[in-house]
Every structure is written in structure tokens, then in C-alpha cells.
Amino acid sequence: MRDLAGCLGSDDNTLLTLACKSTAGNFLYGHCVNVTILSLHACLGMNPSGEGLTALGAAAFLHDLDDDAVANASDEAREAATHALSGGELKSHFREIQRVERDVRAAILPGEPDDHRETMSRFAQILCVCDIYEANTHPRDWRTPLIPHDALKKLIRGSLPGIEDRIVKFFLERMSLFPPGSFVQLSSGEIAAVVGVHAELPTRPILEIRVRSDGQKEAPGVRLDLGEHPVLHVAKAIDETAVPMRDAKLQLQFQANRWWTD
User: Fold this and answer.
1) What is the pTM of this model?
2) Which residues pair with 236 in a beta bridge?
3) What are the residues facing 259 on neighbouring strands?
4) pLDDT per residue over 161-193, tens digit each?
């Protein structure tokens, strides 16, 4: 977990970008890893101890591994188990996360002093928010995913029992309005992948242009930092797999990039 946290703390957004991918078949395999990455990334903003990060990462990774029965449940039961924004299910899920976190932390750090309880409570809340965000931004057999920008807006507008508003705000600040791995369309017409963010400029991410304004595929590696180009701006966040393109192969590539493959 410390190595994973070290990679996330290096200003390299590769892991956050990879957390946009899904696993076919049993979605829980990708879900648990993705929630771990998101939780560690968010909590690095709190400057926790190495032991705290280890506990949080273990809790994030383990919290749903006993949920294999979800695959055979009804659509309604699966939606509840995968944390749609509904009160009763969310409260139950939040309590489960807290329980797993306490168990993991007790095993790693027996005798934790009382003054760490508030920090760990905040960790549990962040883990819960990451869990909801991941579930909403990845496909399930019974529904399509939200794009990251829309999932963040849903978190802001939703009422999350047991989750403080400041925790949701903190998560939004850590992820930015256009998270790494998401796609946007520029005011000039280009389609670009978000590869980096500016904490002080949340609407002006660092981009890699994928499709030119004429609809043709851009050469690899063409980057654009909107923080250095005030004339350009993000016109809208998009689902890159749903945008009509002249290049059919590129559209298939966008669709394939959503999944982990052997």
C-alpha cells in the first residue's frame, strides 16, 4: 500500500487514469482496486501517517470482497449493494466500511490513541464517497456509467447520510472538475483526454489531444495545458465512446480502452 501511495503522490496521474477501466465478468475485481486507488489519492491530501494509509488502503481493498453474491442477485439488490445514492442502503454500507476499517486498523495498529478517531472517521467517509463515485462511473450489466464530471455533480447534489458536506467538497477538490482519465471537448472543437489537473485552476486541466477539430485522429503525445492558454476553455465533458467520429477504428479504440483485457 505504501508503494501504491508513493506512486499516487508522485504527481503522475497514470494510476488515476487506469482507475477509469472496468473488468468484464465480475466487476468487483476492478471495483476493489479502483476504490483503493481513489481512496489513497484522496487521503494523501490529509497528509496521513504511513500506517494510516496502509490501514485505509487495506480497508478500501477488502470492503467488498465478500460481495460475490451480488453477481447472482436481482437488479434491485445489485444496485443497492453497489451503492446508489439511497439513504437506507448507504447508511448500512457506511457502517460496514467503518467496521472493516476498524478491524483492519486494530490488526495493524493495536492500541491506537483516541485522538486519531476523528481522522479515521473522516477516512471512512472518504472511502464511502470513493466507493459511490467508482460505482457510478463504471458500467454494470443493468445500467450504463456516468462520465466522471456528471458523477461528481451527482455527489454534490445528492444527500449522503452519514457523510459530511466538507468530505464531499474535499473529494471534489482532490479529483478536480475534470478528473484524469476523463474526456472533454474544447471550445475549438478538439476532443482531449485529461492527463493532469491544476488544484488552483480546476476548470483548466492538462490535456492530451486525441481528435482534431476536423474529426481526424491527432498524432500521439500532443499535449495542451489550458492553464497556459487562456483563450481556450473546456466546452463540455463528454463520453468519448458516444461521440460520432469519422475514424471508426478510433471509436473502437476508445470503447476498448474502457476495459481491462488480457
Assistant:
1) 0.82
2) 185
3) 22
4) 778 899 999 999 999 999 999 999 999 999 999
